[in-house]
Amino acid sequence: MSTIILLLITGLGLGALYFLVASGLSLIYGLMGVLNFAHGSFLTLGAFAGWELARRLGGESWGTLIASMLLGMVVGALVAAATEFLLIRRLYNRHIEQVLVTVGLALATVALFEGIWGTDPIYVSAPAWLAQTTEILGARVPNDRFLLIGAAVLVLIGIVAFLRFTRFGLVIRAGVENRSMVTALGIDVRKAFTVVFAIGGAAAGLGGVLASHYFGYVSPQLGGSLLIFAFIVTVIGGLGSLAGAAIASVIVAILQQFANYFLGGTGDLMVVLLLAVVLLVRPTGILGKKA
Amino acid sequence: MTESILTVANLNANIEGQQVVEAVSFDMLPVGVTALLGRNGVGKTSTLRAIMGLIERTGEVSIAGERVDREPTHRIVQRGVGYVPEDREVFASLTVAENLRLAERDSTPNRALIEELFPDLIDRAGQQAGTLSGGQQQMVSLARALVNDNKLLLVDEPTKGLAPLIVMDVARALERAAQSVPVLLVEQNLQVVRMLAQKAIVLEGGRVVYDGSAEELLGDEALTKELLGVA
Fold first, then answer.
1. In chain A, what percentage of residues exceed pLDDT 90?
2. How far is CA A263 from the centre of its chain?
3. Domain boundaries, chain A
4. How many distinct helices (H) and strands (E) make up chain B?
5. Is B91 at the interface with chain A, CB within 8 A?
6. Helices (H), chain A
7. d(CA A199, CA A164)
8. How large is the average pLDDT for residues A262-271?
9. Who's near A55: CB < 8 A, 6+ residues apart?
10. pLDDT tens-digit profile of A25-62?
């Protein structure tokens, strides 16, 4: 029983991490039809920014951790908004070029990060509580999972509230459904594009800082390794669906944890099989719109 | 001489490389309803979409004497152009109230007019637009355009697929709207055109082949049959 509890909660923690990356990917695709392969770079840069702050202030304090999370969000948001404004905006409806530019940006930024911070993982320090465990029904659960779950829930609530109660949120929800009709109502939908990129970048930047504590290190490849699973989550959840991304994040991460434990480390394989099944049975994903 | 509210000169438009509007030119009076007519597939909807900048186009489009053909769609709308698209295009996942709020361009929307014309929508403010009937969705689409003060309304087949009773409701709403704003109306239902339009422009093969009085066109059975294929 304790193993099941442990796998469930650690799965939720990993799912939270996937959601922080996938939420932005899903919103960006839903509104703009852009598959953003550079999204992992926002995460990596957020992680490095958080680490740079933490090493200057002393990484063991909660204040530093919170400050590094906020900095990761700000850096992620700014870089994502700049990416949209300088590169993507010129390429709407040119999907091949978008893929080439975002893949190129992802490769170039990894090289840039390696040039600045080196290729080796850099180990991060954190408040002592995060390295400890809490016993739940006999399972000793690493405390950092609770931080991840809490952060993802707050991000989900924040994004849902933003979409539901703000004018920009209304524009984004309408734009996901019918972009050209939004412009035909006199709304400059490009501003919403930048805002969505910034929101996605902020979530990824926060995810970067939290991922560095989950894995214990930050490296130039951090974003790329998570991006693959975030894309899988986005497709399984349904491109453009935030709720779908949240549900799929949990399903994928828990499946991965259970398969790794009970089926001899086959977690990644099971996730890919799940993706194949979803694409065959329900190509639009769990909550995706029909084409 | 009365200045045109809309001037279209040598307008050409393409959809995925295929020419759908060819050298269309016309002027529209700043009052009443002008019907844009023609057989199926002659480019009426494409002409409206080209005026709005929703499809690739060349040529001149002026609203109240100012060129807008180099402007993006949202700027054209902000100049005071209301657009009611073919097939309504309401935002299905948004409520009726959210559809209307999204369309409001300034701080003093014409909510009183909407309440007068479409009282049913006020009762259904919290309902998702996608769950409304076709007629109700058309009301939402019209209300989105009428909630603002416009210089010009472009209305594309507002009665398409609607029950006869609803067709008359829509026609009456347009008649009321046309008292304060000129309307360019694409419409297949000639009864509605007879009821509303003072002027008619007929397209054939993407070009204008008639530009004159709606009454004279529809009063001439042979000409109507020749140009529109119906009497």
1. 85
2. 27
3. 2-281
4. 10, 10
5. yes
6. 2-32, 39-57, 62-86, 95-117, 128-131, 143-165, 167-177, 179-183, 189-215, 222-237, 242-262, 267-281
7. 15
8. 94
9. none
10. 998 988 888 889 999 999 999 999 999 999 999 878 99
CB contact under 8 A, A177 and B73: no
- Answer whether residue A290 shows pLDDT above 90: no
Query: Tokens standing for A254?
Result: 């828990």
Q: Which residues contact A90 (CB under 8 A, 6 or more apart)?
A: none
| CB-CB under 8 Å, B74 with A186 | yes
Nearest Cα residue in chain B from A188: B74
Q: Assign residue B43 a region: left if phi > 0, alpha if psi is -120 to 50, beta otherwise?
A: left
Beta partners for residue B60, in sequence order = B9
List the one residue out of B220, B223, B145, B153 whose CA is nearest residue B183: B153
Mean pLDDT of B27-48: 92
Residue type, B64: A
- pLDDT(B26) > 70: yes
Average pLDDT, chain B: 92
**Residue B224, min C-alpha distance to chain A (Å):** 32
A-B contacts (CB, under 8 Å): 54
Whether residue A187 and residue B98 make contact (CB cut-off 8 A), yes or no, is no
Contact call for B77 and A182, based on CB within 8 A: no
Query: ∠ CA(A115), CA(A119), CA(A122), 5° rounding?
Result: 110
Global ipTM: 0.91
**DSSP reduced 3-state for B12:** strand
